[in-house]
Amino acid sequence: MKNISESLAGRAAYFTMHPFTRRELDDGTSERPFLRRFFEEPSITGLGEVPPVPLDDVATGGMPPVCLGGLQDRAGWFKAYEQTYLERDIRDLGRIGDVIPFRGLLRLAALRTGGVLRISELGRDARLKAATVSGYLSVMETSCVFFRVAPYLGNPAARLIKSPKFYLSDSGLACFLAGIEALAADDPRKGAMVETYVAQNLAGILQSGWPRAEMFFWKSSGTFLKLFTPLFPAGLPITCIKNTNHIICTMYKTDRRNPWPA
């Protein structure tokens, strides 16, 4: 793209290729996404009976070679992916001179996926300047390894100012970079990886089936995560209950009289 002399504004469209969602893996793409039908059809009030998600699916993620079951060595594939990403893709972007501190920040981001993004804290722990961290995160975001979710606030300007949450784009990659081979029920990092898995599925479904919708986070506390797509006044809180070995997700429509926090 950088070698094209003429502007592509208004003449090209860009699509983000997210990891496979559960909807795609379960061959459920023949109809509109449930998220959209949930908003548009008043008769639908909840999810109904949905099988829980095993924690191993979270550690697998949605990268096609990994989640389609054709690999014997999942960790080996992720290792090769990391090496290719660092040694070729990043250098092709032309903005990273030394990949060693970038690698360290990438692994630190994996350990903190699902948290509120505070660049100064990341810089302190990675021993990098805040400006360097900001530049590295921009590269990660451009190369679709990392994405942000803004807080939903009543004031639209405040959404741009307040710190967003951030997620690695694939929970399987996040687990690998965090040193997790099998996600155990008592692993203290389980909650963040589960939240990353839910967020990546929502992002992929919205991108492909409802591109006008936007995803925000409201607040998270303990074992609950609430994400919103405020295309309609009712909103959509998604509560994830992280049980011992599975994830159980429920959805409900908020009170139309007071759907959003101030």
Distance between the termini: 42 Å
Number of strands: 7
CATH top level label: Mainly Alpha
Tally the helices: 11
The domain count comes to 1
Strand order of the largest sheet: 3-2-4-5
CATH architecture: Orthogonal Bundle
Structure class: alpha+beta
Low-confidence stretches: 231-235, 241-248, 254-262
Topology order in helix (H) and strand (E) letters:
HHEHHHHHHEHEHHEEEE
Tertiary shape: globular
**Any idea what the radius of gyration is?**
19 Å
- Percent strand: 5-15%
The CATH superfamily label reads: Winged helix-like DNA-binding domain superfamily/Winged helix DNA-binding domain
Mean pLDDT: 78
How would you characterize the largest beta sheet?
A: 4 strands, mixed
* CATH fold-level name: Arc Repressor Mutant, subunit A
Helix content: 40-55%
Q: Layout of SSEs?
A:
Blueprint (H helix, E strand, L loop, with lengths): L21 H4 L8 H7 L12 E2 H6 L3 H4 L6 H20 L5 H13 L7 H8 L3 H13 L3 E6 L4 H6 L3 E4 L2 H7 L12 H20 L6 E6 L2 E5 L9 E5 L3 E6 L11
Parallel strand pairs: 2-4
Antiparallel strand pairs: 1-7, 2-3, 4-5, 6-7
Task: Explain how this protein is built.
The chain is an alpha+beta fold. It has one domain (48-251): Winged helix-like DNA-binding domain superfamily/Winged helix DNA-binding domain (Arc Repressor Mutant, subunit A, Orthogonal Bundle). Helix content is 41%, strand content 13%. The chain has helices spanning 22-25, 34-40, 55-60, 64-67, 74-93, 99-111, 119-126, 130-142, 156-161, 171-177, 190-209; strands at 53-54, 146-151, 165-168, 216-221, 224-228, 238-242, 246-251. The strands form two sheets. Strands 3-2-4-5 form a four-stranded mixed β-sheet. Strands 1-7-6 form a three-stranded antiparallel β-sheet. A hairpin with a 3-residue loop joins strand 6 and strand 7. Helix 6 (99-111) packs across helix 7 (119-126), helix 6 packs across helix 10 and helix 10 (171-177) runs antiparallel to helix 11. The N and C termini lie far apart (42 Å). Mean pLDDT is 78; it is low at 231-235, 241-248 and 254-262.
